[in-house]
Amino acid sequence: MEHLFKSWQTFSADCRAASHILLLSDYDGTLTPIVGRPRDAVLSQEVRDKLSALAKKSDFSVGIISGRSLAELRYMAAIEGIYYAGNHGLEIEGPALDYISPDAELGQAMIKDLAGQLAAALENITGVIVEDKALSLSVHYRLVREEEQDAVAVIFKRVISPLADAGKIKITTGKMVFEVRPPIDWDKGKAVASIRREIMSLLKLEEVLTVYLGDDTTDEDAFKALHRPEGWSIYVGEENSSSRAEFFLNSVTEVDELLSRLLELR
Predict the structure, then answer these.
(1) Average pLDDT for 229-235
(2) Hey, is 116 helix, strand or coil?
(3) Do 101 and 184 touch, CB atoms closer than 8 A?
(4) C-alpha–C-alpha distance, residues 247 and 237, integer Å
(5) Quick one: pLDDT at residue 38?
(6) What pLDDT is stored for residue 260 in this prediction?
(7) Which of 166, 181, 196 marks a domain boundary?
(8) In what order do the strands lie in the sheet with 2-3?
(9) What is the pLDDT of residues 241-261, one digit of tens each?
(10) Which residues sit opposite 184 in a β-bridge?
């Protein structure tokens, strides 16, 4: 894994040579710093303006792919003319694209019921946030005292085990969060490929240069799907040898700098 700016000459050459660039990014921890409460992860106006400016360029497409629900992601980012993929890509919206997984839709009642069970089971642990995102749910424990975090994991496993053992749900983990999704063969990598195909079809292109930024375990599926020279995978955080990303940026601040450089480059 190499720092992206140390490879800037190669990266910038690929960008200049590309007929079209697809810039996709995770939201939390990538475009905004990680915070205790999901609702507090506010996108800065500076980053919003830069993403909006890139999206308005004819040779750029921009998108945000997140574990958040599509409606919340659209509200938090508030950028017109870009692609939004919520619930790790189970729902996607953008220019000429409007998709929601029919299998995930069928499981909404089960997710709602499970969110209620988890909220009740965890109500005595201060700091737990159970987030029902319709197509999936998240249990955040970043605000939980360290000595109670193991209890959160034990209760979570006890509540979800019957459905997990029956193969009716899929469990993933992230930074201080447990996630429950429908057992569908779909992830951020497949969402990236879907958006990329749509752009190629819409613009009648044979190829687009795809750049993906992310910071968490769910972004690894997107990193795995991208390889140079057609794709650049960029991990946001300290160099991480376990990540499938080929390059890294140290922080959200460096992501902001990357957006500035892209605006100057094209």
Answers:
(1) 93
(2) helix
(3) yes
(4) 10
(5) 85
(6) 97
(7) 181
(8) 2-3, 247-249, 231-236, 209-214, 21-25, 60-65, 83-86, 91-94, 97-100
(9) 899 999 999 999 999 999 999
(10) none
